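Course assignment 3, question 2. Fill in each field.
Student: A.L.
Task: Predict the tertiary structure for the chain below.
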Amino acid sequence: MSLLQRERDIIVRNEYVDRFDFDEIEEFIRGASKDLFISRTFKTADKMLVQPRGGFPTYEKVFALYKDFKEAGVDVLPLTIDSNTRLNDYATAKKMLALSEENDVDMLNGYPLITHGYRTTRKMITHFNTPVSLRHGTPDARLLIETALASGIFEIEGGPITYLLPYSKNFPMDKAFLYWKYVERVCAKYSKLNEPINRESFGPLSATLQPPAIVIVIQILEMLLSLEEGVKSFSVSFSQSGSMIQDIVTSNVIKKLSRKYADRFGHTDAMIHLVYHQWMGAFPYNKEYSDSLITTSTVIAAMVGADKIITKTRNEAFGIPTKEANAMAVACVQYTLGMLGGIPKVEDKEEEENLTNEVDEILEAVFNEEADTLWRQVFNAIKKGYIEIPFSPHIINANEVITIRDPQSNIRILKKGKLPISDKSFAFERSKIKLAQGERVVDKIIQDIGIML
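Answer field:
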């Protein structure tokens, strides 16, 4: 028995989990419908894939949600996990699920997958025969991913950086790297049985004034950490920034550099996809404005050439969207995409050159760290502040980088902290910033955060 399998046997031996039958699970994945694998859908689709967000506590409500999504023309179904399960608090998840089922009131903010179990959930996944993407936010997702894959969920979002720094304050980062190494190995193992399991990094980060260079660096590093364990299908992602041209520049650079670094590290056979998140910041209370924001982001997604778009709804400002609002958003995005054939290529060579230089400069600093493994190089770089996420709550995050918008709404680096970008690159960033006379930086930041309100 391999060391990985011994660890897996320990992980699934949990009082809140039904017995895992690994032989049966392998047999299921080997014979699973090709339509459940988004890695295959990426290869065969002739359009951008549309995926909403969504999740409810009970099986019945998620089933009804999926039914509405399918009627709206969804390409990829979501399964959003509840907060208790994300925090590995399976006891509370079990209690809250029982209360949700008993009283028909949602006592959880998502689907407690581990509580439901893979045997139950698999019935729903195979019934709809559509790729499902696991959305969670869990630093230690080992048991969750085992359960998801056994259920027929063959796209796994997250990573040791993107599901830690934006979500957690105290969870040890070295443990997160090791726990996600486990996830990558399990995904790689199952990828040999049928179509590849697709891994997707979470590009929005803290969803607040994220400079493209940091977003791209983290996407590439999580991609490399995944590919080195044998994963063959990976999605890099980023979210709408508030500037159309900056989104286009970001997409051009992330596509170019993801391929460059995958090839540089010997992963020439890896399939790399691009995912675009609709606006992840504060939404307007005016629902008509929300509709306009969603339509605009759909147009931008087409301009950046995304392989998949993750949608929002007109109800974002008011709490968890209803299944009806979610389905309507999917239908509207599909309708808009249907009108967007033949979009011209747009580029800004000066911006692309500077962004490319910034990403290369930061990554070279990471790769020059004295460490025996890539994950330790990344870990050391984060501890030194070479990589940091603005507005991250985590204690290891340097919190020295300050970003604001320029007059064209592009996100710029005002203070670079310890980011290892050159004087030339930083001077380019600063040259674009125009503060009004007497304007305080803190007031500008508040204004820039609420740009869509």
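Instructor remarks: Strands lie at 49-51, 77-80, 132-135, 155-157, 198-200, 233-239, 271-277, 308-310, 402-405, 411-415. Residues 158 and 202 are 5 Å apart (CA to CA).
Grade: pending
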